[in-house]
Structure formats: structure tokens, C-alpha cells
User: Which sequence fits this backbone?
């Protein structure tokens, strides 16, 4: 399960401060169709070491197994494409960073757009599958490894290297934007008409980092389930370990899920539809203490729910001060398993905050949690916090940002994204003004990055972003479809925050045509 959820994780002008790396004197000048090295521009402070090119025939593309990443199914009808890999370094950093750009060989199969893709957990970017997906969609598509390798679970080899941490946090994202667009321009002999970012989880955080730090890099940013406010997120998601220890409870998964089952039963129909989904968990005020003293059958044995456990569940749902807990109805398997901290938090504390690989995060109490929480913010908020609410430069540059986040996200609490959006509203004049450039969609029933539940597809989200960027048509809804927890295929609109979709009372509840957007 962990492998599956890792992933679940005007002309674009180059900035004036760039360095042009000339081709070797004996190199043949490339044509648009030739798969060969091209001249590359990079930001000041970034040095291009080499440029290589590999031609790919296209057709059906299969992908090797690459644990812990998921196994991807083959992709058919991929056009012939060229992979151009640019190796860069940052003088004094002693780093080696790969930026890979995959481009359709035939100009007629290029849609004129550049797309940069993001990473997951501790992976800055994946250099194969997302690029092939982008090529099939007609994009010149790029990703970077930020010099930190290809393991999304184990950051220990680079956690102590400040230069690599800076790469992972933000520097390599700007490099990716500038280098990727430069390669695209010189390969096709014309600049991409528009540049887009597309990422989920860590990739969502990266999209926000670009909007905050380099507001002219991308015309449009699709940032899904973003791991923003990282310094709090990467410790705050270990809150349950302190709660379990302080409350002296060690429930099994069956006992814990009994609370979510009860919450769904109590709050499912608040939206007028019985589908096994709490549409807006913030409207669900069910108290875990209502389960105190009741019996739950787990693995053939009867367990009586204690008041201490109910209090612990309420605390976990509430989250620590300054960071939200998971929504009611969302599985506790990842953020609240006694003795097994969330893997992102565990690695963050060991290798970045405590700097002690032997640190046992499962043993923390309230005091040690708050010490770690404060230390993480003190050390890393300015490095990788990605929580600056002033997006005015991005707005003035004409950028558009779309975020969708599943209300059943089991890895990144949905309310963290809502709280950020509210801070942007406060900083920039309210919801209506912010809607001019930034729209948030909360997807009922969708889990992290939409692995399960009624979700929004990338094709639909990108199409909405392109309409907004290129034609000025802001999306009021995104389409979501998929299986509900009750096993029924549902199709419904997801409304731009703060509105929610409500059934009109007429026609099937599984059809999008029978919903309208109302203020929550």
C-alpha cells in the first residue's frame, strides 16, 4: 500500500539573468526533428556540465519495476520522442543534478506547451513515467532529480548537505523551469507558447514554491494535494504517537476504524445524499466519546471502547496546535498507527530535525513532540516551509493556480490547504479577489492524489487550467467521477471553494447534472 501511495505524492520568455552554454565546435546544428544535444540556458549560479540526447521510437512503452515506486501499466500509441538530459551543478555545492526533457520528435505532435512535473515524498521528480505521459499528451515535458537521487523514502544520503536540501526545497525547481524551456525552444526553434507545472503531494508543494519564489516561471500551476507548510506537516503528522503515549492507549486498526465508521454513519447524509462519504468533514461534529463503552468485534474478539481511546481519537482529529489532523472518516492507517509513525515524519525527524538516525519517534510525548515541532520550524521554515501567503507577484504576472485536494486524503490533512488559502484571502483582499488567479477544489471521497474514490483526472484538471490561462475562462467546477465507498459509480461536480455541490433533489444522485454549487 505504501508503494502505491508514494506517488500519490504569452510566450514564455527566459529570465534575463541566464548563461548560454554553446555547443561544441564540431557539433551539427540541430533541426526540430533531429534528436541531438542543443544549446542550453541556465539561471545565474547554475552551471551546465553536459547535454546528451537519446532518440526513442515510441509505440507501446513499458516501464521497469522500480521499488518503492508503483508499477505502471504500459502506455500505447506514444509518438517518437527525444530525451534530452542536461546535467548541471552549482559551483561550491559539489552537486550533480539531472534535468530531463522529453519532446515529441514531430513538430505537428507538439501542442506548443512546456510542462514541468513534480515529485513525491523525498523524490524531487520522476524521470521516466510522467515524461512519457506528457509526450503522449503532446507536451514537451521535464523533471529533475535535484541531485538527491531516486528514493522517495530515504533522504539520509543527502539530509546533512545544505546545498542538496536547498535543491530539493526550491533551487532545482527554478533550474527545471529555465533549462526545460530553453531546451524546448532550441529543439523546436521556437519558444513554448505557455509553460505549466503539474505535480501532486511533494509535487504540489513544489508548484506552490514556484508561485511564491519564482512567480514568472509558469503561466499555469496545477498543484494537487500539496505538502505545503512543510516544516509543520513533516512533524505534525506524527502527532498521534504523542497522543497514544500520553493517553496510554494502543488500539488496533479495527478499533480505530470503528470511530471513522461511526462518524460516516452520523454525517454521511448531511449533504442530502447517502453514499458513504462525508461531503464536508468540517460540518461533521460527531464526538468520538459517543463510542465510549460500546463494544466492537475485532478479529473474532469483542473489545470495549474506552474513554481514554475516544479522547485520543478526538485529539488526533483536532491535530496539534497550529496544524490540522486528518478529516473524520479518513483511514487512520498512515497517520495514526500506534508505534509506527508516518514514514515522511519519521525520516524528517531522524535525518533533518534531530539529526539522529536512531531517534525513535514512536516514543514521543507531548513535550518532546512540541520540541520537535518548534525545532523543525526554526530550522526549516525559511528553507522549505512553502507557506508564504503573499502571492501578489504571481497574480500580477498573470499566473493561474489550480489546486484540488481530496477530503479523504490519508497522508496530507486537507485542512492544511484550506488554512493556507484562507491566509492568502486575508493577505490579498478576500476570496473574490483571490479567485481571479487561484482556485481551490475540495473533492469529497477522494484520497491522496486521487488513488481511490471519486476523483479529478489530470486531463480534466489540465484542460481547465489551459482554458483559464489561454482563454480567460476561470473554472467554477471540476468534474469528479469514480467509485464511492458503497461501491456505486458516481459522477458529480466539485465546486470552487468555498462553495460545495449539493443535490437538487431531482434525478439520480450519481449524475453530475443533478447538482448545483451553493455556499457551504
Assistant:
Amino acid at each position: 500500500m505504501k508503494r502505491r501511495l508514494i506517488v500519490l505524492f504569452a510566450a514564455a520568455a527566459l529570465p534575463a539573468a541566464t548563461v548560454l552554454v554553446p555547443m561544441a565546435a564540431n557539433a551539427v546544428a540541430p533541426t526540430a526533428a533531429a534528436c541531438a544535444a542543443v544549446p542550453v540556458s541556465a539561471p545565474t549560479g547554475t552551471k551546465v556540465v553536459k547535454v546528451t540526447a537519446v532518440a526513442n521510437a515510441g509505440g507501446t512503452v513499458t516501464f521497469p519495476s522500480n521499488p518503492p515506486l508503483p508499477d505502471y501499466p504500459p502506455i500505447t500509441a506514444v509518438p517518437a520522442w527525444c530525451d534530452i538530459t542536461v546535467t548541471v551543478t552549482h559551483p561550491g555545492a559539489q552537486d550533480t543534478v539531472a534535468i530531463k526533457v522529453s519532446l515529441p520528435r514531430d513538430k505537428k505532435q507538439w501542442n506548443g506547451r512546456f510542462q514541468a512535473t513534480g515529485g513525491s515524498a523525498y523524490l524531487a521528480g520522476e524521470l521516466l513515467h510522467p515524461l512519457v505521459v506528457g509526450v503522449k499528451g503532446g507536451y514537451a515535458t521535464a523533471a529533475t532529480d535535484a541531485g538527491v537521487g531516486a528514493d522517495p523514502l530515504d533522504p539520509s544520503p543527502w539530509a546533512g548537505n545544505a546545498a542538496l536540501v536547498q535543491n530539493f526545497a526550491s533551487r532545482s525547481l527554478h533550474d527545471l523551469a529555465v533549462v526545460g524551456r530553453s531546451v524546448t525552444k532550441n529543439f523546436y526553434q521556437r519558444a513554448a507558447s505557455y509553460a505549466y507545472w503539474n505535480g501532486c503531494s511533494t509535487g504540489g508543494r513544489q508548484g506552490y514554491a514556484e508561485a511564491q519564489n519564482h512567480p514568472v516561471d509558469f503561466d499555469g500551476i496545477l498543484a494537487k494535494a500539496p505538502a505545503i507548510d512543510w516544516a509543520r506537516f513533516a512533524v505534525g503528522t506524527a502527532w498521534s504517537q504523542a497522543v497514544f503515549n500520553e493517553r496510554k492507549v494502543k488500539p488496533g486498526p479495527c478499533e480505530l476504524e470503528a470511530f471513522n465508521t461511526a462518524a460516516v454513519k452520523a454525517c454521511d447524509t448531511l449533504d442530502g445524499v447517502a453514499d458513504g462519504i462525508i461531503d464536508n468533514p468540517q460540518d461533521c461534529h460527531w464526538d468520538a466519546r459517543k463510542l465510549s463503552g460500546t463494544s466492537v468485534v475485532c478479529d473474532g474478539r469483542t473489545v470495549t471502547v474506552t474513554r481514554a481511546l475516544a479522547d485520543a481519537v478526538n485529539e488526533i482529529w483536532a491535530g496539534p496546535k497550529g496544524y490540522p489532523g486528518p478529516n473524520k472518516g479518513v483511514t487512520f492507517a498512515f497517520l495514526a498507527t500506534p508505534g509506527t509513525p508516518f514514514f515522511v515524519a519519521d525520516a524528517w525527524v531522524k535525518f533533518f530535525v534531530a539529526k539522529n538516525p536512531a531517534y525513535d519517534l514512536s516514543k514521543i510525548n507531548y513535550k518532546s513532540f512540541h520540541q520537535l515541532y518548534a525545532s523543525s520550524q526554526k530550522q526549516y521554515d525559511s528553507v522549505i516551509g512553502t507557506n508564504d501567503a503573499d502571492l501578489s507577484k504571481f497574480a500580477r504576472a498573470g499566473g493561474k493556480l489550480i489546486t484540488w485536494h481530496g477530503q479523504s486524503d490519508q497522508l496530507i490533512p486537507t485542512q492544511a490547504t484550506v488554512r493556507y488559502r484562507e491566509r492568502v484571502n486575508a493577505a490579498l483582499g478576500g476570496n473574490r479577489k483571490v479567485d481571479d488567479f487561484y482556485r481551490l477544489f475540495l473533492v469529497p471521497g477522494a484520497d491522496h492524489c486521487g488513488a481511490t474514490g471519486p476523483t479529478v483526472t489530470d486531463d480534466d484538471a489540465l484542460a481547465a487550467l489551459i482554458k483559464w490561462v489561454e482563454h480567460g475562462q476561470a473554472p467554477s467546477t471540476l468534474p469528479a467521477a469514480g467509485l464511492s465507498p458503497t461501491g456505486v459509480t458516481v459522477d458529480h461536480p466539485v465546486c470552487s471553494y468555498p462553495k460545495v455541490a449539493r443535490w437538487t433533489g431531482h434525478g439520480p444522485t450519481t449524475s453530475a447534472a443533478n447538482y448545483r454549487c451553493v455556499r457551504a
User: Anything to note?
Assistant: The chain is about 30% helix and 20% strand. The first strand starts at residue 18 and ends at 21. Confidence is low (pLDDT under 50) at residues 1-32. Residues 406 and 450 are 7 Å apart (CA to CA).
